[in-house]
Amino acid sequence: MSRRSFVTGMFAALGSAVPVAAGAATGKPHRGTVLRAKPAQVSIGPRTVTTWTYDGRLPGPRIEATAGGLVRAKLVNGLPADTTVHWHGIRLDARMDGAPGYTQKAVPPGGTFDYVFTVPDPGTYFYHSHVGMQNDRGLYGTLIVADPHEPLGYDEEFTVVLDDWVDGVGGTPDEALRRLNASTAHDDTLRSTLLGGVVGELRHPYHLINGRAAETPEVFVSKPGRLVRFRVINAAADTAFRVALGGHRMAVTHTDGFPCAPVTVDTFLIGMGERYDFLVRLGDGAFPLVAEAEGKRARAFAIVSTSHRAPAPRSDVRLRELTQRMLRYADLRSRQADLLPRPSRSVTVTLGMRPSGNEWTLNDRLAADPMRLRVERGETIRIVLDNQSPMWHPMHLHGHTFQVRTSSGPQGPRKDTVNILPRERLNIDVHADNPGEWMFHCHNLYHQEQGMMGTLGYG
Ligand code: C2O
Ligand code: CU
């Protein structure tokens, strides 16, 4: 079977074949955005909270660009602290990566910085502050890069940004981190409390979809029979989510912006920093879009509504869950497979926890004296991520998309963030084609701030 007929076959299983869109380039040039980082009051539904935002909004402004085009964004720092913007997942010029102390000096209060870069690859991305725990206060927004030759002929799309909400309600994440660090090694109460998102007087943490708590959910309004693309982004600091859409199976089409051979599932787990896109042909009714906070007995929730009919309850179903093994990279336009060159060597990166439980390491090093992987420009290197800690870690590499190597075949998915389960080993192949000193870290912000930050670099 050709790749094309495989892809079309998968979509036929959705109810009807996906029409392939005409190849005309329709993207308009990105005119430029001003991102004002500033304290603001925002409503998350049941409560109004004081926190830090871009432009007083949560999520921050949506930035749309077209693959091959430029993004221009002026950061204006109206915060009482230094800040930067990191463009998560974008294979950009290192000077625009927003990594404080590595690629730029953090922008002081009152300062500005012009981010100007080309976005080479279409897909679902986001941006966030890369200073301390600022991302967790709400300093994040979406960056959607359109494909001028979009191969999927869907009718409409929705973006779903997941977040866990601790800061601005019962304390600040920085304070939470300080308390966590001050706790003794076996004070598990505080840790589990904190990891459950419960700080200070806040008893019931909020989990948000597009800045809205489950009590007053976001409603995505569409029509029955429409083929809809959902772009799911996990911007949370400390929560993985299990996502499902009631009454529908989802055809997962993209992993961290890059296409994969569509896999039809009932649910998938999305770690911090990961993105998944899926297609569904919507039924007639109102359907719950549920994101279960993994291990926390809490959920984020939205509604997809195509009519005023009540949703059909559906609870007794065995869900088919996505695993990395089901995924393989596939160019949906049936162009060449775009294989990475074979890796010339491999290095192991060990993910570890120090006995204190408050320090997380990469090859036994903490961020203060970080692991620095050296590679040659142009080489492909296999990185063996060996998780010897009792916690899962969504590891993110800046400036690149790597290929996950699963045992099921030659091709795993393309990703820039991959979740490694406790005691698991996972191989990723990285092609060193974008020189710079790139952060390589766990996207659990607590782990990141507690040492789990290194670099991969070449000139
Ligand atoms: Cu989204 Cu270094 O991070
Ligand atoms: Cu981690």
From TrEMBL:
The keyword Ribosomal protein does not apply. Residues 41-148, 201-304, 356-456 form the Plastocyanin-like domain. Residues 1-24 form the signal peptide. One of its GO terms (molecular function) is oxidoreductase activity. Keywords: Copper, Metal-binding, Oxidoreductase, Signal. It holds the Pfam family Cu-oxidase. This is FtsP/CotA-like multicopper oxidase with cupredoxin domain.
